[in-house]
Task: structure prediction
Amino acid sequence: MFTKSIPNMFTLGNMLLGMLAIIMALEGRYSLAAIMVIVAMLLDGLDGRVARALNAQSEFGKELDSLSDIISFGVAPALIMYLVSFPELQPGLAWVVTALFPMCGALRLARFNVQKGAPGYFVGLPIPAAGGVAATLSLFNKDISAVYCAAAMVLLSYLMVSTVRYPNFKKIGLPKKAVVYTPIVVIAAVVLAVAFPDQLSKLIFIPLLLYAAYGLRQNIGRALRRKRRDENETEELYRPKR
Result:
């Protein structure tokens, strides 16, 4: 019975870090708030792997994971961005953009729960990646204007509900023997995060941004190839026969 509950502990840890991120953001500790979102991403990546390693997967765990994700990667990053970057925006615009992000995240999670994705891919940008980009992007508020941050949030919101394909790394398994070491990994990550919140958050921003941009680039490439194929078919159809 205890073994079956272990993956849910990771999921609840994810939710706890999301709540801590919200509290820290309200207290003005934005770097720590952003890093809590990043560590929550680690727990989110581990809960499914631990569940598969222990053969403890369940519908309950799946639903709990979605509820945790909407807090940690939907509400928390949107609030961080709102408090850090959006005070310069017109209030109505700031409210709409802030609300749009978790709403699209919720739609993304609901679709993931009821629809089968392409093998090896996620359909739409996963909400943990979108939340990670948003939370860490907010730390560049001195270098990036509020308008660009708002545009980035709208783009991330769109990518979550889009049909853009992103590589799925969650299927990479975790050996059963390695489960015992996962708490050590989490504790080490938290220690590093608390010790170097600002530097670590900005460093992690780069791979997250590249992941978000990768799917968009692939989608544009597919659209261009489809357009060329349609043009070639049209040209072939109307080409005079000899």
User: Anything to note?
Assistant: The mean pLDDT is 81. The radius of gyration is 20 Å.
